[in-house]
TrEMBL record:
Signal sequence region: none
PANTHER family, sorted: TRANSCRIPTIONAL REGULATOR DAUR
Pfam families associated with the record: HTH_22 (PF13309), PAS_6 (PF08348)
Protein name: PAS domain-containing protein
Domain of life according to the entry: Bacteria
Residues of the YheO-like domain: 6-118
Ranges of residues in domain Transcriptional regulator DauR-like HTH: 152-213
Organism encoding this protein: Qiania dongpingensis
Amino acid sequence: MNGTVEQYIPMVEYIAQVIGRNCEVILHDLSDLNHSVVAVSSHTLTGRKAGDAITDMALMVLHNKSYVDQPFVVNYVGRTKGSPATYRSSTYFIREGREIVGMLCINIDVSAFLSAREALDALIMIEGETGAEPASVPCVSENFTVSREALLAQTFENVSEQFPLPPERLKAAEKRRFVKELYDRGCFGLKGSVPVVSEWLQISESSVYRYLNEVMRDGQ
């Protein structure tokens, strides 16, 4: 066994004990890819044992040299043929200089958590967020604010994200579209909103009213 890899053997059971019974830790010595597994934690999930071969992902990493500039890869999906289990897997590359000589692999069974998430998604049923049945109200987001000013500010910020420049630097046509977006969101139903929008867009109140009239007239 490679001496550098051998030093990691105590870590196998240590990590498994720290994470718990849903965790399996496997140590690979890459000097013999056909029998690379040299240590497995006492609680095994995938049924592998010492003397078993390297995985397809590990082979691909080695073949493509994609590990060269990475110390590890984390949180990818692992599966075992014939098993419904899904694992969150991570691999640490053991090196001698720049050469990878071993891999310390952690597999965590997340199947129960995925099932729980599906159950919660089915219970929450927010359209657009999950695959659940559509909710009985339109798919909208809601921001809870404590005042008119805060509500306008939040809406203004949300609309601003649709434009490439700060609102005050927009061209006239874009400012008109900005007013339309605020109109479509009901902002002008709030008393005193026109002076606020005028200040934000750095245009006159009469310009805001003109844009509003055009939007309502055109039905756009």
